[in-house]
Amino acid sequence: MRLVGLYLALFVFWLLMSGHYEALILGFGIVSCAAAVYIARRKDIVDHETLSWYLKPKLPFYWLWLLGQILKANFDVAKRCVLPGSRIDPCVFLAPADQETSVGVVTYANSITLTPGTVSMQTWDHEIRVHALTRDGARDILGDEMGARICRVEGEQ
Amino acid sequence: MALAVDIASWACLVAGALLCFAGGVGMIRFPDVYARSHAAGVIDTGGALFILLGLALQAGFTLVTVKLGLIGLLLFFTSPTATHALVKGALAGGLNPLCHQLTADETAALADKASP
Amino acid sequence: MMFAAAMAGVLAAMALTLVRALLGPTVFDRVLALNTFGTVTVLAIAVLGFLMGRPQFLDIALLYALINFVGTIAILKYLQYGDLGASGDSGKSPDAGEGGR
């Protein structure tokens, strides 16, 4: 079942990439997708945990919210990069990560890194070491809005 | 209509170019690897997002836009992973960040100030 | 015209990251600059495709983004373990794993 899904996803991806719809080329596409699925099965990399994560209905809303945060942080950090006399005040701290699954923690750490101004340095099961460019950035992470949102996405079945 | 799209695409491309430039300046100005990774983050997220958006507006609803979207998606998944791996490697390589290490008390104080 | 403006910004960013790669006091500075240079190169190829009216360049940009990521991870792994074939389990910290595969 999962393999059929993988095959369909790969084939749609192939169609979008190639833009050719003649019989011969389509045949090549079908064969190469089948080969890729066979190799994925042999290597046992068809993932069980990640897929269900991407099917959560709230995830797109979280991504939109994250996009807004990224834009805000971008302009702040860009200003600090360019304007003369602007101060940076880097600090390192441990932020709690209350997500239950490892995919949740990874999503949280990646979201922290994706937002300019904060970078996750090390991750453990329930803690992330974060490097922040400013105290305001540190406060945003420690306020735990982002973490709580990921927990809410994770909470759906 | 075409004019509005052109203006929006101009704005996106100029914003992306400026963000890329700002990130480059930050790469030169900031004091250590960890601070520079933030400047790199500006190029990886903001610069890429705006330039790809500007190009997509020019392309309209075609396969080209789908490819631009895939490039954007790929960059947004790989760049934090690469940055995290790099920073973790720098930490494991014994490079200490040039900054203040917050104690547990200071962390708690910041968290208190953040939550209303 | 607008593609030329975008190209100018991207090229300036490329020059600045290249300067950092040459200056960089530590090897990690150089790898960071190289990774960013790769990202900017992807953008430059995409803009160049539009500048020259050849959207086929986007395929190259997509491929370059993939290779850039794999290359950065490979360099970092080599730096940390001294061996590209090392299994990831030998790391010191109990890491929760990373996003990409």
- SSE sequence of chain C, one letter per element: HHH
Radius of gyration of chain C, taken over Cα atoms and rounded to an integer in Å: 17 Å
Largest sheet of chain B: none
Largest interface: B-C, 52 and 52 residues
| Residue windows where pLDDT falls under 50 for at least 5 positions of chain B | none
Total tally of structural domains of chain B = 1
> How do the SSEs of chain B run, as a string of H and E?
HHHEH
Please give the count of helices of chain C. 3
The helix-and-strand class of chain C reads: mainly alpha
Quaternary structure state of the chains depicted: heterotrimer
Mean pLDDT of chain B: 85
Percent helix of chain B: over 70%
SS-based class of chain B: mainly alpha
Beta percentage of chain B is under 5%
Q: How many strand elements of chain B?
A: 1
Shape of chain B, please? elongated
Topology:
The complex is a heterotrimer of chains A (157), B (116) and C (101).
Chain A: H1 2-18, H2 23-43, H3 49-54, H4 59-82, E1 91-96, H5 102-114, E2 118-123, E3 127-132, H6 135-142, H7 145-155
Chain B: H1 2-29, H2 33-59, H3 63-92, E1 100-101, H4 104-114
Helix pairs in contact in B: 1-2, 2-3
Chain C: H1 2-23, H2 27-51, H3 57-81
Helix pairs in contact in C: 1-2, 2-3
